[in-house]
Amino acid sequence: MYFTDRGIEELQQRRGDEEVTVAWLAERLIEFVDVHPEFEVPVERFATWLARLDDPED
After folding, report:
1. In the chain, how many H helices and how many E strands?
2. The pTM is what?
3. At what angle do helices 22-35 and 40-51 cross, to 10 degrees?
4. Cα(53)–Cα(2) distance, rounded to whole angstroms?
5. Residue pair 29/44 in contact by the 8 Å Cβ criterion
6. Which of 52, 58, 47 is nearest to 25 (CA)?
7. What is the pLDDT of residues 6-44, one digit of tens each?
């Protein structure tokens, strides 16, 4: 288990039953980067990865 898995597990426990839109998630990512600009590159990579999940070329 990676250290980051703890945060993912907490997310599942606290909000696992909620439904969210991609627009809502995008807004939360923008807010996170505004507060923590040092994470801009990893958040951008994560968002791009999510956006292209169904793209067979990636």
Report:
1. 3, 0
2. 0.78
3. 170
4. 22
5. no
6. 47
7. 888 999 999 999 999 999 999 999 999 999 999 999 999
Q: Pick the closest to residue 15 from 35, 24, 55 (CA basis).
A: 24
The token duo for 44 is: 């951008």
Distances (CA, A) of 21 to 1, 25, 26, 28, 57: 28, 6, 9, 11, 25
CA dist 12 and 54 (Å) reads 23
Give the whole-angstrom CA distance, residue 8 versus residue 18: 15
- The dihedral built from the CA positions of residue 3, 49, 51 and 29, taken in this order, carries a sign that is positive
